Please model this.
Amino acid sequence: MTYPSFHPPVRTLMGPGPSDINPRVLAAMSRPIIGHLDPAFVGMMDQMKVLLQYAFQTENELTLPVSAPGSAGMETCFANLVEPGDEVVVCINGVFGMRMKENVIRCGGTPIVVEEEWGQPVDPQKLENTLAAHPDARLVAFVHAETSTGVCSDVKTLSQVAHARNCLVIVDTVTGLGGSEVRVDDWGVDAIYSGTQKCLSCTPGLSPVSFSPRAVERIRNRKHPVQSWFLDLNLIMGYWGSGNAKRAYHHTAPINALYALHECLVLLREEGLEEAWARHRHHHEALKAGLEAMGLSLLVDEPHRLPQLNAVKVPEGVDEAAVRTQLLERYGLEIGAGLGPLAGKIWRIGLMGFGCNQRNVLLCLHALEAVLTEMNAPIERGHAIRAAQRVYGETGHRDEV
Ligand SMILES: *Cc1c(COP(=O)(O)O)cnc(C)c1O
Model:
């Protein structure tokens, strides 16, 4: 029996992640491996830290990529900051807030939930009311960019509300980083985690995190050791180190994956962070114009929409899964399904990182219109592409990434 090598089909990824990867990043990944304590590698790690600080807009010393996907970044924040018996306010407006609550429970904390309807941002007033009723709460956690619904919550205001009640803040920006505004220091965030396969357009499997000096102090002064050995930042700091401190082996770093992340961050730096945010908004506007010209509508109210994750309502009577199958089989195009209460009701169209470009917007509009037309769905035909092109025309041509 012989087994052939695996060759994946060619796809265009416009779902909730992973996103398409720049060939420069794949090339970086295929460079020769070196030791994870090699001075050349340590030099790359130091540069990576500076590049991540730029991406997060922070001077936080403790800024590094956890060697595992976004979910591990989430666990790193909760495992290190929650102690048994702690009251933690968790704001839930989608799938990832629910996972935060589960993390609190598993760390021995007591979750206090602020609920919001899916498709709505977290309400600062509700958070304030909840904190007023729970004066012993030590932490507030919420999702910046809720990938399950396409909603952006106001991190700055929520953080102010939390700090006024002496709580530290944990923020999920797995889908936010690189795609829309993130300002860790200006916003006063204490612990934040992201992922590499969304708007950074890297391979999955790494989770950039950053912790404020206040958060580090709390971690250093814990009464109980961090329950997870692998995610204990007190130990990880020994490898990622600071300044010229000697690096100690903790675990073998995912070396080539880190080459890839380094290249993604170099690309982000070359483009410029604010330019990257503007690019996401620009292509979102074009996609939105096309979808609306087709008679489709977005789930989220305009001021709270994430440009990088477009939740589109499935028209009455349309089998949403059949549409996704057709898009994949005939156009090699992947879009996402709805989750939880939104399953069957929305599609999730990602415009993330390298995949956020004019070609993908036009492909998606064309393919969606063709598939829906064949299914006799109630849509307007023949207007979507022109509507999108009008947006591109209005603002002048922008270079593809
Ligand atoms: C994707 C995602 C995660 C989980 O990241 P993984 O890399 O899949 O573990 C967490 N939070 C949000 C908001 C996400 O979009």
User: Anything to note?
Assistant: The mean pLDDT is 96.
